Amino acid sequence: MKVAVLIPCYNEEQAVAKVVRDFRAALPEAALYVYDNNSSDRTVDAARDAGAIVRREPLQGKGNVVRRMFADVEADIYVMVDGDATYHADSAPMMIAKLVTENLDMVVGTRLHTDEAGAFRHGHQLGNRLLTGFVAWLFGDRFGDMLSGYRVFSRRFVKSFPALAQGFETETELAVHALALRMPVDEVETPYFARPEGSVSKLNTWRDGWRILVTVFKLLKDERPLLFFTAASALFAALAVLLAIPVVFTYMETGLVPRFPTAILATGIMILAFLSLASGFVLDNVKHGRREMKRLHYLQLKAPGAE
Question: What mean pLDDT is predicted for residues 26-49?
């Protein structure tokens, strides 16, 4: 089967050549693609000198690069890895073998048990656990390291993935896509290393963590609209009741409604609660139709281990 290694890069002059050489040694028959994302250093030259096929994506953000890579490259098996030389290239054949022999659609290389100092910062570990746990609670507990940048995909995963994210939240979108369609997926533990000297992480803990959290709520609205709008309905209803309680007590004591604006506001918010609940039921039916179409498109493509 044809294997493609996809390496999104942004200012990775110090690391990308090592990534290309390591994966060339681990997967000698694979095609290696480096997609440069407006680097201002010598990333392109370093990747080309190391023997990679270099392409460019002008829209800034890892999600935009992933969308372009998945659209452009044709293969049976896709290996996606960051260009920062922190992932273990020799694990790729084992991950591919697992994908093929078990007919999986995605295998994630987890980083949770690294012992190398500085490889996985404590803030990133905490944020990863919190966000992974939150997604597991909302969509299903299938991943221990949802935000890993090291993954192996089947063709039917890649060509059925809508790729709407723009930045680092693309990993969250990948995980929820697999969970929503109940794809066969798995994880394997892989070594994780510190960045080479002179290489700087592009991930901002707070900014990107917030963007990932916003993405989770957007995906919740799209994939589980009944839950999302029922929760919104409950909040509106609770607020309406809190506003209405003093109005009701005053009316029971005096027979008057002196807080007329509050009564109107409570009534309006309660109407919003019922509208939100109704929207949830309608959009849940729409979601089922969309999911059926996505599933049918996914099933049109051959499984990695199929005859």
Answer: 94
- Model pLDDT for residues 130-187, shown as the tens digit of each residue: 888 888 888 988 888 888 999 999 999 999 998 888 888 899 999 999 999 999 999 9
More confident residue, 287 or 307: 287
Nearest to 84 by CA among 30, 143, 6, 17: 17
Distance separating alpha carbons of residues 8 and 2, to the nearest angstrom: 19
Q: 253: pLDDT confidence band, cut at 50, 70 and 90?
A: confident
φ, ψ dihedrals at 147, nearest 5°: -100, 10
